[in-house]
Amino acid sequence: MAIKRKVDRVIDVSGLLGPGPSLLTQGALQQLKAGEVLEVISNDRGFERALMELCDDDGCRLLEVREQFGLFHFVIRR
């Protein structure tokens, strides 16, 4: 069961290949203030590894990963 969280921004990177999803996520995170939450929707489970690296580099925290209807929802706190 998913935890209900306040999400400040949602981006959908499903269907994108290469560095596109990471670059869009990085740009969205840079627009957030400390403590705000971003939800990233992707159809690629492997994107979690890239997000974990991005969070480590950027000082963010991956709070939640869930699958819903074949899409993966990654919730990140800035």
Count of helix runs: 2
Q: Can you say what the CATH homologous superfamily is?
A: TusA-like domain
H/E element order: EHEHEE
Summarize the biggest pleated sheet: 4 strands, mixed
Topology:
Elements: E1 9-12, H1 20-31, E2 37-42, H2 47-58, E3 61-68, E4 71-77
Parallel strand pairs: 1-2
Antiparallel strand pairs: 2-4, 3-4
Helix pairs in contact: 1-2
What's a concise summary of this model?
This protein has helices at residues 20-31, 47-58, and strands at residues 9-12, 37-42, 61-68, 71-77. It is α+β, with helices and mostly antiparallel strands and 78 residues long.
Verbal overview:
This protein is of the alpha+beta class and 78 residues long. It has a single domain (9-77), classed as TusA-like domain (Translation Initiation Factor IF3). It has helices at residues 20-31, 47-58, and strands at residues 9-12, 37-42, 61-68, 71-77. The protein has a four-stranded mixed β-sheet, with helices on one face. The radius of gyration is 11 Å and the shape is globular. The protein starts with 8 loop residues before the first strand and ends with a strand. The model has no long low-confidence stretch (mean pLDDT 91).
